[in-house]
Fold this sequence. Notes:
About 60% of the residues lie in helices and about 10% in strands. It is mostly helical.
Amino acid sequence: MADRISESRENFRFQVVVVTVGAILMVTKFVAYFMTNSVAIFTDAMESIVNIIAGIAGLYALFLSPKPADKDHPFGHGRVEVVSAAFEGMMILGAGLIIIFSAVESLYNPKPLQQLDYGLIIIFAAALVNLAVGRTAIRIGRRNRSQALEASGKHLCTDTLDSMGIIAGLVVVFVGMRFGYNVAWLDPVMAILFGAFIMTTGARVLKGCIDTVMERAEEETVNKIVDCLREHRHDDWIDIHALRVMKFGTRYVVELHATFPKEMTVGQIEDETHELEGCIMDRFGDCIELTVKAEPCRDYSCRLCNRDCEMRASKFISKVEWDEDNMVQKKQHSLQDE
Length: 338
């Protein structure tokens, strides 16, 4: 519990850094835009506004998500991070649309470009800062399992890629203008291209949120749980199935059904259940809330079980090899399932 509180505080503190840096870079980029009249630089500045608004939403989410479960929220408040990430995705989509409309207008009513050299220097410096903050946010978000902080980091890194592409294009425009070529039309064209790219990023963020709301299993976490169970497997664990993994903020709720020998007493089944829970909790710590439903073996289970048992109904044939596909099945396994 103490580790989870510490992680939540770290997430919140770094999100404050993200918002603060975003505000400074937004002002810097708009200065560059008014200096140059570049629609491409306006693209970068608009995305900074999105960074700030989304960052504030993420800050609230990271403040609320660590709160414990209560009567109205039995699984805690972690899903607020999904709401925050979804809001950020919609903001990214909106910024992309605004950028594309502004760029199209600039194609028909162009403004003269000026002081591109100074504008390029400003945007390049802002891109380096964005990259450093974004990569750090992703690293901390993944380590602490924070979807909101990781989404902020990915957004900043995407912003950096946009900036570098804009810089490359504006260098071409700057050099062409120096040699007397009319290449100013490249500026709004680049803005349209990067506006479309920004919209695809927003769509990906929204897709991740929809997957979480629809309780799509996290493949990496499921694989780790399956590996852990295979590693600690012994004869008394006849079968494990109906494995479910749901994410609530930085916490995972895991449910599974375990088949034990029907000759076991209630006390023995309880001991086996605690052992099963212990191996998973030792691997993942208190970020997982685990529920194990114990079930007695069936007559067809005998073909999968090589225990010495007086209640055996048929001969042992072979064990079921547990993997990510068959452990999520809802019913107990039999050889006919394989």
